[in-house]
Design a protein that fits this description.
cell membrane (chains A, B); homodimer; mainly alpha; 197 residues; disordered N terminus; CASP/CASPL (chains A, B); transmembrane (chains A, B)
Chain lengths: 197, 197
C-alpha cells in the first residue's frame, strides 16, 4: 500500500502547486510589456542621440586657400535621415503597443488574436529598423575608416564627437532590432503555447 | 417548421462542403515551399549579380599626372562583403528549409512544432538580410549620388555597369527581405490557425 500511496501524494502536491502558481499568460504579458517599454526607450534614445550629433570644426576649404567653420549634422546623409525616420516610427510603435499590451494584461479577452496582430506588425517593424540600422552602419563605417579605393576620405578624425554620437545611436538601434526579434519570437511562442497538445 | 428547417439544410450543405474540400494545411505548406524556393532563387541571384559586378576603367590618378586602369569590384567595400555573406547564408537557409518543408508536406507529423522553429529562424534571417540590404543600399546610394558635405565623389558616372549590377543585386535582396517577411507572417498565421476557436 505504501508504494501506491507515494505517487498519489506526489500528484496531490503537484496539483496544489499548479493551483497555487499564477497563470503563465500573465507572466508572458508582463515580459511583453517590459520589452516594449525597452523598445520605446531604445528607439527614443537612438533618435535623440542622432539628432544631437552636431559638431562644428574649422576645416580647410579644398579650392580656396583658407579654412572655414563647417558643421557636421545628421541631415548631411540620406541614410541618417532614413535612420531617424525609421527609429521614430519604432518609438511610436513601441509606446502604442505598450499601452495596448497593458490593456490586454488588464482584460485578457481576445489576447490570442491580439498576439497574432502584434507578431505580424513586429515582423514589419523589424524589417524597417534592421534595414535602417544597416544603412546608417554602412555609411558610418565609411565615415570612420574611409574608402581608399574610391577616394572617400574618413571624417571621424576631424568630427570625433559627431562620430561618437552616430556610433552610440547605431549601437542602441541594434539593441532595438534585437528587442524586436525577441518580441516577435515571444509572440510566436505565446501563440504556439495556446495550441492544445 | 419551414423557418427551422432552413438553417439545418444550410448546415448540412456546409458540412458536406467541409468534407469535400481538401485540408487547408497542405495548401499552406505548398505556398511555404514555393516562397522558400523563391527565397533561394532571389538570394542566389543577388549574390551572383553582386559577385559579377566587376568593371575596369581608365581613371586619372590623383597624385601623378597620368591615367591608369582601375577595377571596381564588390570587395572594395566592407558593406558589399557583408551583403554577399548575408545573402549566401539566406540562400543556404532557403534551400535547406525548402527540403525540410517538402519533407513535412510528405509526412505532416510534428508540422506545428516545425512551423514554430521555422518562424523563429525566419525572424533571425529577416534581421540579417534586411540589415545587409540596408548597408549595401546606403553605400550604393553614396556611390550613385556622392555626398558633397564630406567630399565623397560619386562613382556611378564612371563605373556605370558596376553600379547597374550593384543596384539590381540590392533590388533582388529587397525582394528576398519581403519574401522573408511574408514567410514569417505565413508561419505565424499557420500556427494561429491550429488553435481551436
Amino acid at each position: 500500500m505504501a508504494s501506491t500511496d507515494k505517487p498519489d501524494h506526489r500528484e496531490s502536491i503537484k496539483s496544489e502547486e499548479a493551483l497555487a502558481a499564477p497563470p503563465r499568460r500573465s507572466n508572458y504579458s508582463s515580459v511583453h510589456v517590459a520589452l516594449r517599454v525597452l523598445l520605446f526607450a531604445a528607439s527614443v534614445t537612438a533618435v535623440v542621440v542622432m539628432v544631437t550629433a552636431k559638431q562644428t570644426e574649422i576645416v580647410p576649404v579644398p579650392v580656396f586657400p583658407f579654412s572655414a567653420p563647417l558643421e557636421a549634422k545628421f541631415s548631411d546623409s540620406p541614410a541618417f535621415i532614413y535612420f531617424i525616420s525609421a527609429l521614430s516610427v519604432a518609438g511610436l510603435y513601441g509606446i502604442l503597443t505598450t499601452l495596448a499590451s497593458i490593456s490586454i494584461v488588464l482584460k485578457p479577452a481576445c489576447a490570442t488574436r491580439f498576439l497574432l496582430h502584434l507578431a505580424l506588425l513586429d515582423v514589419l517593424m523589424l524589417g524597417i529598423v534592421a534595414s535602417a540600422t544597416g544603412a546608417a552602419g554602412g555609411v558610418g563605417y565609411i565615415g570612420l575608416k574611409g574608402n581608399s579605393h574610391v577616394g572617400w576620405g574618413k571624417v571621424c578624425n576631424v568630427y570625433d564627437k559627431f562620430c561618437q554620437h552616430v556610433g552610440s545611436s547605431i549601437a542602441v538601434a541594434l539593441f532595438a532590432s534585437v528587442l524586436l526579434v525577441l518580441l516577435t519570437m515571444l509572440s510566436v511562442f505565446s501563440i504556439y503555447r495556446k495550441i492544445p497538445k
